[in-house]
Amino acid sequence: MRITCPYCGNRSLDEFLYHGDAEPQRPDATADNAMDAFVSYAFERTNPPGQHHELWYHEAGCHAWLVVTRHVSTHAISSVDIARDLAKARTPNTAGRA
Ligand SMILES: [Zn+2]
Q: What is the DSSP letter of 63?
């Protein structure tokens, strides 16, 4: 398997480290149900067939954190995105808040 890093180009899988599912969102530690939310976040994962969003780290390259969209049966990669850009896109704009 090869991964096309947005910064470095098409590289061998040996250059990357897999860091798990990229979908779960870290719960709000100040919420009333924080303990239950963290237990669910840490231990309750699904493993459905099809496309997965996975977190990869380009350790032997540019050290970028990437979200790789990969089909778990065929290993076909449909997209590779910079994790920071995806995180910014899904975080509400807090600019201007006191
Ligand atoms: Zn890279």
A: -
> What is the pLDDT confidence band of residue 95, given thresholds at 50, 70 and 90?
low
Cα–ligand 1 centroid distance for 36 (angstroms): 36
Instruction: Report how far ligand 1's centroid is from the alpha carbon of 10 (Å).
Output: 9
Q: How far is the CA of 6 from the centre of ligand 1 (A)?
A: 7
Residue 98: inside a domain: no
For the chain, how many structural domains are there in total? 1
Assign residue 31 the CATH number of its domain.
3.30.2270.10
Per-residue pLDDT, averaged over 36-57, amounts to 92
Which tops the pLDDT comparison, 63 or 23? 63
**Strand, helix or coil for residue 86:** helix
